[in-house]
Amino acid sequence: MEIAKAISLNVRVLIMDEPTASLSAHEVAQLFKIVRDLRDRGVAIVFVSHRMEEVFEVADRITVFRDGRLISTRSRAEITPQRAIADMVGREVLFQQRTPAKHGDVVLSVRGLGREGVFEDVSFDLKRGEVLGFAGLIGSGRTDVALALFGIQPATAGSITLNGKDLKIHSPREAMANGIAYVSEDRRQLGLSLPMSIAANISLPSLKRYLSRFGLVRVGMERATAESFRQRLAIRTPSVDLAVAKLSGGNQQKVMLSKWLNTHPAVLIMDEPTRGIDVGAKTEVHAMISELATEGIGIIMISSELPEVLAMSDRVLIMREGRQMAVLDRGGATEETVMIAAMGQAFHQQDEAA
């Protein structure tokens, strides 16, 4: 309907922003026929898409942007998908490479995990002390896998094995009881109770531990725990009784991390752990991730910042449109190889080789 409305206006310039996102393959073919007809009638079209194959099918010239800056503009004949990807990822790596920890046994094994209509056939092993990075474009399904593992949006297919025990996780309560913790990408809406104190937030997922036999919170015990995390994670606050809303973004992130570490997880899922915090706080969070891996916690780290994924991960799992494209080890994961898989180019190259 949106496309039909735009075409009905007899426009001279038509801007199409991800027009195929919700269309089937047949509908995409019909759309491209309309686009070509409009072009032949003299309409100028700006076609915005992260689907590389569509851009190369429909565009006469291709422009690449990165971090809000124009990088290149070339005619279709002058550029290849590999060249476009190189332009997209050709940035300076600002993150310090993490020194890998010694890995232990497999703590989490996932086979054929899926949620109907969202993602499918995700399989991987996570070892103790390992950081497994999840990479992919926005909407690729990375967070959906995390939500399934934590029981917020339970999987409808596949298996989850934790410490050799087969699990069916239907709720966060079940995930927590089995040693899985999830640091949400949205700390203000989903991760923290902003009006409550630092101490109350940290104790919240483990509240039973702090209740007396009369059901009252042992405030002294709660404050002592919060104080230990304040020192361990260098949370900058005059008091653990301060409302979380009054902290900076970086310190709020540390409080959210503290509350899940307080559950003593075997597996820690961190979704965009450095989003919206300053460079100094990012460095501190990265140091904490390294420390936790050294302690033997298995970590899944989801990040939209590709240099961060590469700097912090021992292996990288790449997703595209709800499908697992590849799992690359540390030596084989570069910005270019990850982006090639994330853009779906790996499958095309395999088809051509075959």
Poorly predicted runs of 5 or more residues:
346-354
For the largest beta sheet, what order do the strands appear in spatially?
10-11-12-7-13-14
Q: How would the global form be characterised? A: elongated
- The secondary structure category is alpha/beta
Mean pLDDT comes to: 89
Q: How much of the residues is beta strand, in percent?
A: 15-25%
By DSSP, the count of extended strands is: 14
Termini separation comes to 40 Å
What does this protein look like?
By secondary structure, this protein is an alpha/beta fold. Helices cover 37% and strands 23% of the residues. The strands form 4 sheets. It has a 6-stranded mixed beta sheet, with helices on both faces. A 4-stranded antiparallel beta sheet has the order 6-5-8-9, with helices on one face. Strands 1-2 form a two-stranded parallel sheet. Helix 4 packs across helix 13. It is elongated and about 80 Å long. Mean pLDDT is 89; it is low at 346-354.
Can you give keywords for this protein?
single chain; 354 residues; alpha/beta; six-stranded mixed sheet; four-stranded antiparallel sheet; 14 strands; disordered C terminus
How is this fold's topology laid out?
Elements: H1 2-7, E1 13-17, H2 25-40, E2 44-48, H3 52-58, E3 61-66, E4 69-75, H4 81-89, E5 106-115, E6 119-127, E7 131-135, H5 142-149, E8 157-162, E9 165-167, H6 172-177, E10 180-183, H7 187-191, H8 198-203, H9 219-232, H10 249-261, E11 267-271, H11 279-294, E12 298-302, H12 306-312, E13 315-320, E14 323-329, H13 335-342, H14 345-353
